[in-house]
Write a structure and sequence with these properties.
The protein has four helices and seven strands. By secondary structure, the chain is an alpha+beta fold. It has two domains: about 20-95, Alpha-Beta Plaits (2-Layer Sandwich), CATH 3.30.70; about 95-128. The protein has a four-stranded antiparallel β-sheet, covered by helices on one side. It has a three-stranded antiparallel β-sheet with strand order 5-6-7, with no helix packed on it. The protein is flat. The protein starts with a helix and ends with a strand.
């Protein structure tokens, strides 16, 4: 009877985390780099476009704008470079340093910006 019960159980899927960092797809258009589906990626990580835009412009040292759900960077940048920078952003500002889950929100405590994890309750300061 136990063997029949095990045969009726659904198979577990191997791998496949609950949260995967979205890959940004980009292409060159003249002297500008256009990142497609930027707004969708921001919804997936749960962060404001303005915050991510500020991080990207500081890291790349260039001007950028968001229009029609796309990010337009002044200058030529490789897709690998943009994805590596976005992965760094997610590790710093999205993933909890304690439990490594993406269930975090920004909070302000006594003038210090904190990253509060809603999964484990950890509070950690974030860099400016």
């Amino acid at each position: 009877m136990l063997d029949r019960l095990y045969m009726q159980l659904p198979q577990k899927e191997k791998g496949g985390e609950r949260f995967e960092i979205p890959k940004l797809d980009s292409y060159l258009q003249g002297h500008k780099t256009v990142v497609k589906q930027f707004t969708q990626a921001m919804k997936a990580v749960g962060r404001d476009e303005k915050h991510v835009l500020k991080f990207i412009t500081k890291e790349l040292g260039t001007a950028a704008t968001v229009s029609e759900g796309r990010l337009v960077l002044n200058g030529k940048f490789f897709a690998e470079q943009i994805n590596k920078m976005f992965t760094n952003y997610v590790k710093i500002f999205v993933l909890c340093p304690e439990c490594n889950r993406p269930d975090t929100k920004f909070s302000d405590q006594h003038g210090v910006k904190m990253l509060k994890c809603e999964a484990c309750g950890a509070l950690s300061p974030i860099r400016k």
